[in-house]
């Protein structure tokens, strides 16, 4: 209890007021005691001064004790209060406590010990109640804050969902646009390529050396442009999940040789040796030959593009009876390990500047990646800056299609499983991307 307490006694009976004053004085309570005789004066006193406790008579001349305590409670005045009752009436006591009185005491029991005990406990109870109310208030506030935050999060979540929908819509529009545009571009490109080829035929007259040179450039540029357009078309189809593999049984070594022979002139133009090694006991596979060739052409055109001198090797081997591997190795500029993963993402190139030395769409490896995944295969990359790169593709000899039951071939040939004769090859270690 603090040193000097400010105490207010409200009672119209002077003798009763004196009894309280005497008892508190005898108990040695250090205090400033103020006395008023009715409820109205008590309110005036309480609204101008902060008291540590108020003792009030249950029967005040101007109002009932219950009304007094109710008014006190509903006003902004905060003070521990002790009601002094003339007779012990439990019902009244309960009502008063419910209405907010801190404690009560029968006037017949007023004694220094009793009064000081009631005073102490009233102050203690009051502070405990105040603290509890404060904590409650804080809890309520943080609860309200949580509700507000929750609402905000829900709102943000809805916004993100909306944005996701919009992004999805835009992405679908973009894929659709790319597919339509590349499809539309293919028709005139094919005409340019076709008519340039026709111009070479002698039945339309002999071209001069200069004319032939120009037509050849038109043809080569046309082919290059068509390849780019096809890349964009494939990519948009892959993104939209609309690219299907058309699997058949074919001789993989023939497809590899075909792709290599198509790329040889490019390698020759840069004075690069292009070597092929096929080490297969069984050359038959069940896959999409067009896509296998496309993968190889992409890897070879990269190898040629990024190699200034040296060699390019293509190796085809059997990993096991059920798996084959195609390796394309070069002695080119190489790739830093930090870019291993990135370069398989669409439109990603190690050099992304406009002024980059090597042209390209940045779609080749992304397309290869998707195709190899669709085939149930894996890509491995090993490379060292300045020394060269090695792309290894492992593929199942027989790919699985989504509509396998309908599309799978009869793998029996002359009573034997055509894929059963593969020998077990050696296995080279490399970094997985
Ligand atoms: P593009 O060749 O059209 O740029 P790709 O998706 O085929 O796109 O390749 C992505 C990037 O990966 C290339 O831009 C290049 O930086 C790197 N890259 C691919 N192949 C090689 C390679 N054989 N040697 C060095 N870098 C390569």
How would you characterize this protein structure?
- With 433 residues, the chain is an alpha/beta fold.
- The protein has helices at residues 14-26, 39-48, 65-74, 90-99, 112-200, 209-239, 252-269, 289-305, 364-374, 404-407; strands at residues 5-10, 31-36, 53-57, 81-85, 103-106, 248-251, 273-279, 284-287, 311-320, 323-330, 378-384, 388-396, 412-413, 416-417.
- It has 3 domains: 5-110, Response regulator (Rossmann fold, 3-Layer(aba) Sandwich); 168-238; 245-432, Heat Shock Protein 90, CATH 3.30.565.10.
- 49% of the residues lie in helices and 18% in strands.
- 26% of the residues are buried.
- The protein binds adenosine-5'-diphosphate.
- Adenosine-5'-diphosphate binds at residues 302-303, 306, 330, 332-333, 335, 343, 349-350, 360-366, 389.
- Adenosine-5'-diphosphate (ADP) binds next to helix 8 and helix 9.
Task: Name some characteristics of this structure.
single chain; 433 residues; alpha/beta; Rossmann fold; Heat Shock Protein 90; five-stranded parallel sheet; five-stranded mixed sheet; 10 helices; binds adenosine-5'-diphosphate
């Amino acid at each position: 209890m603090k040193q000097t307490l400010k105490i207010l006694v409200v009672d119209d009976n002077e003798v009763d007021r004196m009894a309280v004053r005497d008892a508190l004085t005898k108990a040695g309570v250090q205090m400033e005691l103020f006395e008023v005789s009715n409820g109205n004066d008590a309110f005036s006193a309480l609204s101008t001064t902060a008291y540590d406790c108020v003792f009030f008579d249950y029967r005040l001349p101007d109002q009932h004790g219950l009304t007094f305590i109710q008014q006190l409670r509903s006003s902004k005045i905060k003070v521990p209060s002790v009601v002094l009752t003339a007779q012990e009436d439990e019902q009244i006591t309960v009502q008063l406590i419910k209405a907010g009185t801190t404690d009560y005491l029968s006037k017949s029991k007023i004694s220094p010990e009793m009064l000081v005990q009631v005073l102490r406990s009233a102050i203690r109870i009051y502070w405990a109640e105040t603290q509890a109310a404060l904590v409650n208030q804080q809890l309520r506030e943080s609860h309200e804050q949580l509700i507000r935050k929750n609402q905000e999060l829900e709102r943000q979540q809805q916004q993100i969902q909306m944005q996701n929908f919009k992004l999805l819509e835009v992405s679908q529009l973009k894929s659709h646009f790319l597919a339509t545009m590349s499809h539309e571009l293919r028709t005139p490109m094919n005409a340019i390529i076709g008519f340039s080829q026709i111009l070479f035929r002698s039945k339309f007259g002999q071209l001069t050396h200069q004319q032939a040179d120009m037509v050849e450039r038109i043809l080569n540029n046309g082919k290059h442009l068509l390849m780019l357009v096809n890349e964009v078309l494939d990519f948009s189809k892959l993104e939209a999940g609309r690219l299907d593999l058309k699997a058949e049984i074919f001789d993989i070594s023939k497809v590899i040789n075909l792709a290599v022979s198509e790329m040889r002139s490019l390698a020759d133009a840069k004075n690069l040796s292009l070597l092929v090694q096929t080490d297969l006991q069984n050359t038959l596979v069940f896959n999409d030959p067009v896509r296998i060739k496309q993968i190889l052409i992409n890897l070879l055109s990269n190898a040629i593009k990024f190699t200034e001198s040296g060699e390019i090797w293509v190796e085809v081997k059997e990993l096991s009876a059920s798996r084959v591997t195609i390796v394309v190795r070069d002695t080119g500029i190489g790739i830093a390990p930090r870019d291993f993963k990135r370069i398989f993402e669409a439109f990603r190139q190690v050099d992304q500047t406009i002024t980059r030395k090597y042209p390209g769409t940045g779609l080749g490896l992304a397309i290869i990646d998707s195709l190899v995944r669709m085939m149930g295969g894996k890509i491995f990359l090993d490379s060292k800056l300045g020394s060269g790169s090695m792309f290894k593709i492992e593929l199942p000899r027989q790919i699985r299609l989504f509509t396998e039951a309908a599309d799978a071939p009869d793998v029996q040939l002359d009573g034997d499983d055509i894929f059963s004769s593969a020998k077990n090859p050696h296995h080279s270690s490399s970094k997985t991307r």
